[in-house]
């Protein structure tokens, strides 16, 4: 659910009016609610309290170190996919021993770094990765814990771009290859198989695919037991969807109850990797209308945030609610809400019935996950600041980029003179 509420005709996040945030920090900007993030994390933790469990927040959803710090203080673990994410977690005060490392393309230096930092476990996604891990661990004289990420060929019924557990997907290991691979790991001197994992996609709004995944993982767990391999954990991935519009995903408690019923008899630690369900509804993107543009065919509200700031609508045709920060009595019209970027895909919402005036502020709701973390500098636009609201306080947790930041890493090559 949204973390926004109207008080009178003004939109608030916790006890902070969005208008005040715009006055203080300018627009566009991302704003997050501390209490919403913490409440979601606690709901997961309590909902799984009937079985041994560890929540490893998926850092890619929102990787600001202030957000990671909030979660580290709650004793969260972290699911990471790059060296950058490891170092973010550590900079935020997270415990490396609670990090699981996912991803199909782990580079040598990333593996070495993760071994040096003594992370909890690597989720292996292919046989060549297994061989690379083995070679590096042996060279570094390290014993490392690994899990096999299984591709169970289960359709999560979500957008094709965020479907990850079908046969045609690059992720995970075919379920029929798991036993030989597990045996190979057992024979290796430097790797220890401690778990199996699966993650079949994101923004999943049905319970059935999750239940199928758990069945598949438990089958594999038993097959491994039969050949003498006892695991320490089962990682059921992330993927629980949230309500952006008219979706009805299972609530965190319902999801946890159904999965726990299956897992409880096995008395094994369960790892969960939620990202979106923790931060998605806990953040918004605040933007100002620069121009109202009325053509014979359409009305456009051209705002100061674009696809470089929030890519989801352009990339996945994602629908996110757009709310006026101040309610007033102008005429309601149907608008496309578009950004300033030179691409026709640069829209934040289409066909929205809104009463707008030029200069109004708009809140693009449910932007806490995969919002800032997928932003870019396309069109040489400075990325927006991020602000964390805690009660009646609003703190800057990332400053707005400057024009200088944009080309600070660039170098004009020393060229031979032109002819
Ligand atoms: N674990 C693994 C291995 C993942 O790849 C992901 C997300 C998660 C956990 C967390 O999934 P979540 O609970 O957030 O659904 N950019 C897309 C979503 C991409 C998700 C990638 N993997 C979007 O904006 O919808």
UniProtKB/TrEMBL annotation:
* InterPro entries to which the protein is assigned, alphabetical: Ala_racemase/Decarboxylase_C, DAP_deCOOHase_LysA, De-COase2_C, De-COase2_CS, De-COase2_N, Orn/DAP/Arg_de-COase, PLP-binding_barrel
Residues found modified as N6-(pyridoxal phosphate)lysine: 60
PROSITE patterns per record: ODR_DC_2_2
Q: Which cofactors?
A: pyridoxal 5'-phosphate
Which residues does the UniProt record annotate as the domain Orn/DAP/Arg decarboxylase 2 N-terminal? 35-280
- The keyword Cell inner membrane appears for this protein: no
Q: Which residues form the Orn/DAP/Arg decarboxylase 2 C-terminal domain?
A: 30-368
The reply to whether Lyase figures as a keyword in the UniProt entry is yes
Q: Which reaction does it catalyse?
A: meso-2,6-diaminopimelate + H(+) = L-lysine + CO2
Q: In which pathway does it act?
A: Amino-acid biosynthesis; L-lysine biosynthesis via DAP pathway; L-lysine from DL-2,6-diaminopimelate: step 1/1
Binding sites annotated in the UniProt record for substrate: 276, 312, 316, 343, 370
According to the UniProt entry, its GO molecular function terms are: diaminopimelate decarboxylase activity; pyridoxal phosphate binding
Query: Partners and quaternary state?
Result: Homodimer.
Purpose: Specifically catalyzes the decarboxylation of meso-diaminopimelate (meso-DAP) to L-lysine.
Family according to the record = Belongs to the Orn/Lys/Arg decarboxylase class-II family. LysA subfamily.
Q: What is this protein called?
A: Diaminopimelate decarboxylase
- The record lists the organism as Aquicella siphonis
* Gene that this sequence comes from: lysA_2
């Amino acid at each position: 659910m949204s973390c926004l509420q109207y008080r009178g005709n003004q939109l608030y996040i916790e006890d902070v009016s969005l208008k005040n945030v715009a006055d203080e920090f300018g627009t566009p900007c991302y704003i997050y609610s501390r209490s919403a993030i913490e409440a979601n994390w606690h709901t997961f933790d309590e909902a799984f309290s009937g079985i041994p469990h560890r929540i490893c927040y998926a850092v890619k959803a929102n990787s600001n170190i202030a957000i990671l710090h909030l979660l580290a203080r709650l004793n969260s673990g972290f699911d990471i996919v790059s060296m950058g994410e490891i170092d973010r977690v550590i900079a935020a005060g997270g415990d490396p021993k609670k990090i699981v490392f996912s991803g199909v393309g782990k580079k040598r230096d990333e593996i070495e770094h993760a071994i040096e930092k003594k992370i909890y476990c690597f989720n292996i996604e292919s046989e060549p990765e297994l061989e690379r891990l083995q070679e590096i661990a042996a060279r570094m004289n390290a014993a490392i814990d690994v899990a096999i990420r299984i591709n169970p060929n289960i359709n999560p019924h979500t957008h094709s771009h965020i479907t990850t557990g079908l046969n045609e997907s690059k992720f995970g290991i075919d379920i029929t290859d798991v036993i030989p691979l597990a045996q190979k790991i057992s024979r290796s001197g430097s790797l220890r198989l401690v778990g199996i994992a699966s993650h079949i996609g994101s923004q999943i709004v049905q319970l059935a695919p999750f239940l199928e995944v758990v069945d598949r993982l438990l089958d594999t767990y038993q097959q491994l037991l039969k050949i003498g391999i006892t695991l320490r954990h089962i990682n059921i991935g992330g993927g629980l969807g949230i309500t952006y519009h008219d979706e009805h995903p299972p609530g965190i408690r319902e999801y946890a109850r159904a999965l726990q019923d299956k897992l409880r008899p096995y008395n094994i630690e369960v790892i969960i990797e939620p990202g979106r369900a923790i931060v998605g509804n806990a953040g918004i993107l605040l933007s100002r209308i620069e121009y109202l543009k009325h053509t014979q065919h359409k009305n456009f509200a051209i705002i100061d945030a674009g696809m470089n700031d929030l890519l989801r609508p352009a990339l996945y045709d994602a629908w996110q609610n757009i709310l006026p920060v101040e309610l007033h009595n102008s005429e309601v019209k149907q608008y496309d809400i578009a950004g300033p970027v030179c691409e026709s895909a640069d829209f934040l919402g289409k066909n929205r019935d809104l009463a707008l005036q030029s200069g109004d502020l708009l809140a693009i709701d449910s932007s806490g996950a995969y919002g800032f973390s997928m932003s870019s500098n396309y069109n040489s636009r400075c990325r927006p600041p991020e602000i964390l609201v805690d009660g009646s306080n609003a703190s800057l947790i990332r400053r707005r980029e400057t024009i200088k930041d944009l080309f600070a890493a660039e170098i004009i090559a020393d060229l031979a003179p032109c002819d």
